[in-house]
Amino acid sequence: MAIQGTRTEDPGGYTFDDLAVVMGTYNEEEAIGTVLDDIETVTDGRAEVVCVDGSSDRTPEIAHDHGAIVVEQEPQGYGVAVREAVLTPDRPVVVTTDCDDTYPMERLPDFLAEINDGADVVSGDRLYYGAEQMPAMNKLGNELFALLASVLMGKRVHDTTTGMRAYRREILQKIVWTENTGLSAELLMRPLMRGYDVRERPIEYDERKGETKLDPFSGGAAIAKSIVRVALEERFR
Ligand SMILES: Nc1nc2c(ncn2[C@@H]2O[C@H](COP(=O)(O)OP(=O)(O)OP(=O)(O)O)[C@@H](O)[C@H]2O)c(=O)[nH]1
Ligand SMILES: [Mg+2]
Predict the structure, then answer these.
(1) Any ligand 1 atom below 6 A from CB of 205
(2) pTM of the full structure
(3) Overall average pLDDT of the 72-93 stretch
(4) How many alpha carbons fall within 13 Å on the CB side of residue 123?
(5) Is the CB–ligand 1 distance for residue 60 below 6 Å?
(6) pLDDT value, residue 17
């Protein structure tokens, strides 16, 4: 979605100068220009952008042209890329997104405001507004993942696999991350089960540009396994 000239005042405390927006990028040349333009517009060009890239198309060139830091990495899956991406910046607030133009970059000021309000992790809940653009099977899967995680944790969560979250960097650095396809669930569950201030906030979710990189069957099974493993590890740690 192209954003034109929307600009919100910086909330107190951390500003966009303290913010890094990070993503894994894998053959996203259709979407990356829009995503990076949106980030630039919303943050007035002040957020640092990190792309961990495994593409064979023009994605890394487009990222460079937009001033992003591009870390090259052989494609090894979502979590391997996103783990590298969240650990790269040295800014105190790190926001993840996908590079497929599904997530609302105009919400970056709200996420930063929640961090300034004391949140440790702010997680975009795509299911709250109905996620009409999400393929029906993904939606069902995501609802089941959230239920499974909620039962295992004893705390209700609504969207464990969302790609848009804000984190205090110190938490990303302190916890050891082990999951690949299930990394998004892990990034929500470990902080929550360790007592950090984790808040879900409703977000809009748009239709994906370009091809999906996730196989719904093998990917779904991997995510379910991650949820069970992470919940048990955190329970008994
Ligand atoms: N560097 C790198 N990035 C990856 C890899 N796999 C996925 N990504 C990126 O991670 C993000 C999430 O992948 P998606 O294909 O959007 O997965 P999804 O959001 O579960 O599925 P969709 O519903 O199709 O959006 C995208 O920005 C991808 O380009 C990988 O192996 N390496
Ligand atoms: Mg996506």
Answers:
(1) no
(2) 0.95
(3) 98
(4) 24
(5) no
(6) 98
Task: Output 9 or 155, whichever has higher pLDDT.
Answer: 155
pLDDT for 8 equals: 42
Q: What is the dihedral of CA 107, 108, 110, 116, to 10 degrees?
A: 170
> Regarding the domain delimited by 17-235, which CATH topology (the fold level of the hierarchy) does it fall under?
Spore Coat Polysaccharide Biosynthesis Protein SpsA; Chain A (3.90.550)
3-state secondary structure of 237: coil
Residues paired with 93 in a beta bridge: 19, 168
What's the number of CA atoms in the CB half-sphere (13 Å) around residue 141? 21
Q: How far is the CA of 98 from the centre of ligand 1 (A)?
A: 6
CA distance 155 to 100: 30
Q: Which residue has the least CA distance to atom 6 on ligand 1?
A: 78
Q: Which residues contact 99 (CB under 8 A, 6 or more apart)?
A: 23, 24, 25, 28, 31, 32, 35, 51, 59
Both tokens assigned to 115: 């961090």
Q: Give me the pLDDT at residue 3, please.
A: 64
The residues spanned by each domain of the chain are 17-235
Q: What type of residue is 16?
A: F
> How would you classify the pairing of strands 93-96 and 121-125?
unpaired
Q: Which two tokens stand for residue 123?
A: 């997680």
Residue with tokens 């890239």: 53
The pLDDT, as a whole number, for residue 204 is 98
Per-residue model confidence (pLDDT) at position 229: 98
Predicted confidence at residue 1, as pLDDT, reads 66
pLDDT (tens digit, 9 = 90+) per residue, 101-151?
999 999 999 999 999 999 999 999 999 999 999 999 999 999 999 999 999
Rounded distance from Cα 47 to ligand 2 centre (Å):
21
